[in-house]
Every structure is written in C-alpha cells, then in structure tokens.
Write a structure and sequence with these properties.
globular
C-alpha cells in the first residue's frame, strides 16, 4: 500500500507541478496533490496508515517509542524503503507518459504517442479500480469520496496525455461523439488497456486485503433496478466528461473535480441498488474477484454501462450543437465590407449548406468548391438575421445508433 500510493502521490506531483505541459501553467496542482492523500487515507489507511512520506513514517515511529518508552521498532525503515521505491517507480512511468520532458524543444503540443496514451489509461484505471476495492473491502467510512478523489487526481495528472477516460463507457461516449477526439481504433485499444488494468487491480486488492467480493450485483436488487440505476448514472458521468473536458471552451482548472464528484454522487445514490460501478473496468474487476459462479454478472453490467456511454453521446449531440460546427476562416477574416459587416463562413457538420456573407461570398464559394451556397445577412455585431437549418432528433438518433 505504501509503495503504490506513494507512487501515486509522486506521479501526480511530477505531472501537475513539474512537467513542461503543466508546470506554472495551472491552478489545480494543489487540488490534485491533496486529493491523493484523501484517496490513500481512506483506501489504504486501514492497512498501512497511509504515511506516503519517509518523514512521516520516521516521525510516527519515533513518537511511538517516546510515548511507550520502548526502542524503535524499525518499521519506519521498511516504510521508507517502500516509499522510496514508489517514488522511483513514479519517475520511470512519468518518463513513459511525458516523453516531451526528455526531448529538447518538444513541449508536447504535437500530441502524444499511442504508447504514452495506453500507459496513461492503464495507470489511471488501475489506481481507480484499486481504490474502489480497498475502500469496499476494508469498510471505509468515506468510500465514495475516496474513490472520486483517486479519479480526480489522475484526471488532472493525465488528462492532457490520453484524455483520462479510465472507463470504457467514457471511451465509447468520446468515440461516438465523432469529433476527432478519439478514433474507433484508438478507443478499442484504450478499452483493452482499461480492462487489463481492472483485472490487475482486482488481483492486487485481493492480495492486500485477503478478502474478495461476494457478487457484483447486490442480492437485494433485481436486474430492472440495476439496469435503471447504472444506465442513468453512467450516462450522467459520461455526459459530464463530454461537456467539461471535450468541448471547445472546456473547464481548464476544475474539470477533474466536476467529473470526480459524479462518482461521489453515483456511489452515494445507487451504491445500495447496483453497487454504483458506473464503469465496465470496475465491474469486471469485482466480478472476477468474487464468486466465479456469478462472474457472468459482468456481461449485463458492461452492456448497460457501454449503452449509457452511447446514450450520453446522443444527449451531448442534442444539447451541444455548437460543438459539431466547423468554422471556415477566409483568406482575410478581418476584412469588412462597405457596411462594416465582416465575412463569415460556417460549415454545419453533416449539412451541405454553407453560410457566406459579403461581396466576396460567391468568389469564396467557388474557390472552396462548395456544393450549395445560402446567402445570409448579418448585423454589425455578427448576428445572423436568418435562422440556421435545424437537424431533427430522429436524424440525431440515427447518427449514433
């Protein structure tokens, strides 16, 4: 426990406070680092005390000896070794997910290699699932908050690397939104990494606690209750991810907090109904570490949760239509016609109609080779005096399903 959560603490610090991408450029570093302590204290506190720091380990050991009048136990030495190993592991894995920090002139703006993204998804999912298992199996008094804290800090740490999905349902939602955020092929690889991380995390928390889950589905709930609970709250989680982390004007500082708190809400609201998994990787981990006669419970859970991800993408399409429009910039976007109105060109995603305005409209349309042109007039503030073409809800549903 000390090795794993010290790794998490050092890894988050390296990413949010020391990397080229984030150092000196964000205000969430303190929040991310602090939430590691919350995740570890409630997740592993019942096992090791969650010191995560050689100074804390030595201080507790010395203080205990002073109070009891006995000799030092030497536990602080074992703790210190574990914590230093965790720090070393954090440095190694940081190099894998942030290669630009070791390349002169590379600031990460050109994107990350697939290997870095897959390692990112594996690590984030592993820490999330491990924290779920430790909180439940050690009867933590703040399980939902600890679990959400682990998700928050890993999102802050790795969001700029892979998007920090850490959940196959979220990956489905991002892929289904079809805005180039994640290709289907890359999404499939993400899900393999996430599920593999879930299985390894399950083996880890079983080893650390010496205990297992009895069943994924609570015995007092029927499948109808489970279906509704998991569908609604997994869709909410995926929808929040799409709305705060993948939009053009995303929450630059508190996106991790918004996403993580969805887990707190879901865990508290439906934990007694369906377990509040909200994640096929979590569902697989719990199902595979419990009674093997009930391992098949993973299949309906995964189906519900993946369906919820697709549903979230559909809701996002309906509620955020501006995210599916691509702006076309002319050769001189600042040029104005004699009335002072600028040239505006927009392409509505999935539509043939392109709106152009100004005396150069016909020339630009011909140059761009556009199939059809609809002229519109705009006032001096750029507002259209004509209503844009709408897309039916039926077409939206068909677009996704």
């Amino acid at each position: 426990v000390e090795l794993i959560y010290t790794f998490m603490l050092c890894f988050v610090i390296l990413n949010v406070a020391c990397s080229k991408m984030h150092a000196g450029r964000n205000q969430f570093y303190g929040l991310a680092i602090g939430f590691v302590i919350i995740a570890a204290a409630y997740g592993g506190g019942n096992i090791s005390g969650a010191c995560l720091n050689p100074a804390v380990s030595v201080a507790i050991d010395v203080n205990t000896a002073m109070i009891t009048g006995s000799a030092l136990t030497g536990y602080s030495l074992m703790y210190t070794i574990s914590e230093l190993l965790g720090a070393a592991l954090a440095a190694v894995l940081f190099r894998l997910v942030r290669p630009e920090d070791y390349t002169k002139g590379d600031d990460g703006s050109s994107g990350y290699p697939l290997r870095a993204k897959l390692v990112s998804e594996f690590l984030g999912t592993y820490m999330l699932v491990l924290t779920v298992g430790l909180n439940v199996l050690t009867n933590s008094v703040a399980g939902a908050f600890s679990i959400s804290a682990s998700l928050m800090c890993m999102i802050f740490a790795l969001g700029t690397v892979s998007g920090a999905h850490f959940n196959p349902a979220v990956t489905v939602a991002v892929v289904a939104s079809r805005r180039g955020k994640c290709s289907p092929g890359e999404g499939a690889k993400y899900m393999v990494a996430q599920l593999a991380a879930g299985i390894l995390a399950a083996r880890t928390y079983c080893l650390l606690t010496g205990d297992t889950f009895t069943s994924l589905k609570p015995a007092d709930s029927d499948w109808g209750q489970v279906f509704v609970a998991e569908l609604i709250f997994t869709a909410v989680l995926a929808f929040i991810v799409l709305s705060v982390a993948t939009v053009q004007s995303s929450l630059s500082e508190y996106f991790g907090l918004a996403i993580g708190l969805c887990v707190t809400v879901g865990g508290c609201a439906i934990g007694g109904i369906s377990g509040g998994s909200l994640n096929p990787a979590v569902s697989l981990a719990i199902a595979s570490s419990g009674d093997l006669r009930a391992v098949w419970h993973f299949i309906p859970y995964a189906f519900i949760e993946l369906s919820a991800g697709a549903m979230a993408a559909g809701l996002f399409y309906v509620t955020q239509p501006s995210e599916f429009q691509t702006e076309w910039m002319g050769e001189d976007p600042a040029a104005e016609d004699e009335e002072g109105a600028g040239v505006l060109m927009k392409e509505a995603s999935g539509l043939d109609d392109v709106v152009l305005e100004g005396p150069e409209a016909a020339f630009k349309a011909e140059k761009l080779g556009l199939p059809s042109v609809q002229k519109a007039s705009f006032d001096l503030e750029g507002r259209s005096t004509q209503k844009s073409k709408s897309t039916s809800l039926g077409r939206c549903a068909g677009w996704f399903f």
